[in-house]
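B., you asked whether I could sanity-check this one before it goes into the benchmark set. Here's the sequence:
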Amino acid sequence: NYAIDTAQFKYQWVFDLDADERFTPELKAECDEMVRKDEKSAYYCSYKNIMWGKWLKHSTGFPVYQMRFHKLGEIRFVGHGHGQREGAAQRGIGYLKEPYIHYNFSKGLADWFAKHVDYARREALVRMLEEEAGKHEKVVGNDRMARRRRLIRFSQCLPCKPFLKFFYVYVVKMGFLDGWAGFQFARMQCWYQFATDSIYHDLRAAKPQKGDLCSRR
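And here's what the prediction gave me:
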């Protein structure tokens, strides 16, 4: 939001790309077509997660969407957990077919684990504060994004979540088809769920103040 408000953009349309992500010629062509049509305020885009040179097609539940392509002045971002989500869009949000490439493990697994300790704390804090306030973000709609967010909400109530997460990634989503990388990724998701749940219970015991939600390293 700060960049949207302060940067001097040359064009009206922006694609938000992180340093470990890459565009493709096919995605560029599709974005050009959406700009020409100018029918929506923004678009969800999926990504291909690469680990050890292999695309984790099954383990990551491809396609998973995030709002990345948008027209300036027609949508805002809202903070949520360790990242952000889209706010209200003036003309709605569409879907792009072509994904971008995400080298999520380009700095090694040690870096991935270090980042996800902080991510787990943020996710746990959001969950705890929502429960204390007696309300949750309302998930409406019946598209793929709304269904995925309802599934995540439902999973928070299940027991033994870390083991269920491994089973879901490796068996239900057929992560075993991704070979050794798929097995390792399923184990990492199990660990991340365990870290999030553990920090959640730790935060509840410590009763942090609501202002802690905005703290960052």
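One thing to flag: Residues 179-206 form the longest helix (28 residues). Otherwise nothing jumped out at me.
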